[in-house]
Amino acid sequence: MKTAYITHPDCLLHDTGVGHPENASRLQAINNRLIAAQLYDFLCHYQAPEVTREQLLRCHDAAYLDQVEKMMPLTGHAYLDPDTVLSPESLRAAKRAAGAVVKAVDLIMQEGLSNAFCSVRPPGHHAERMRAMGFCIYGNASIGAAHAIERYGLERMAILDFDVHHGNGSEDIFRDDKRVMVCSTFQHPFYPYTAIEESPDHIIYAPLEATAKSAEFREAVTSLWLPALDHFKPQMVFVSAGFDAHREDDMSGVSLTEADYRWVTEQIREVADRYAEGRIVSVLEGGYELHALARSAEAHLRVLMDL
Ligand SMILES: [Zn+2]
Hints:
The protein is α/β, with parallel strands linked by helices. The protein has helices at 25-36, 53-57, 62-71, 90-110, 140-152, 168-174, 214-232, 258-275, 290-304, and strands at 3-7, 44-47, 78-81, 84-86, 115-118, 157-161, 180-187, 203-208, 236-241, 280-284. The strands form 2 sheets. An 8-stranded parallel beta sheet has the order 2-1-5-10-9-6-7-8, with helices on both faces. It has a two-stranded antiparallel sheet with strand order 3-4. Helix 8 (258-275) packs parallel to helix 9 (290-304). The termini are close together. 54% of the residues are buried. Zinc ion binds at residues 163-165, 242, 244, 285-286.
């Protein structure tokens, strides 16, 4: 098992302002934890390249890309929405974040790595085809899935999203593209307030009440994600790995622990081993309580590393 760990110093430069929960300390906390846990040296380290415009255009409209570039501030901050901030270096960070996922696909398809974790920010799963949202600028996981389809001719991708918020961006990008199944567990009703009454067969909602804990989360994954994935048989599995459902993370009501992140990663590995030759590209999404985030990412990575 060789696990790639892909990040870039530019991801630290995206400055969201004082007191914003999505900040550079998140990546540093994960990095430090992996060193302390003596996992760091057993990962295969890569720097993320910048995503190209061509790669972005597979998931976002040209008008949206132009609009973001036009809004970039020379100093201070500009706001894509009330939560989604641009600083002078934000686009560099966003291009590395999406580029990391493209790189992960290439490493697995060309270099024989088993799986990859992209420790990047800004996150991506709220970014829609034509709209930034919820701290997200580019749809990082979606851009990776689109790359696997366009570059390698794969036909069935799965995006598995256990962030506590619904991955509305991934859904928006692939709602009319049955090649990409999007499975999401999320607190409901909660931001981004997705209407979940109806969905096509390849969009799988697993809503959780605000009081949900381990048992409810595992039941949702077991009864809603796994049968759909067994039917779909994905050739590559992308993970929108948000750790903000942790009980110590006050972003949400749902109360998970590291053991749950370990468990769900084991389920994901089983799916990937069965149908996708083990190919997993995991991408950091949310997770804001730094200690819980770092411990949860470690638990997730230990399974990817087969430890
Ligand atoms: Zn989240």
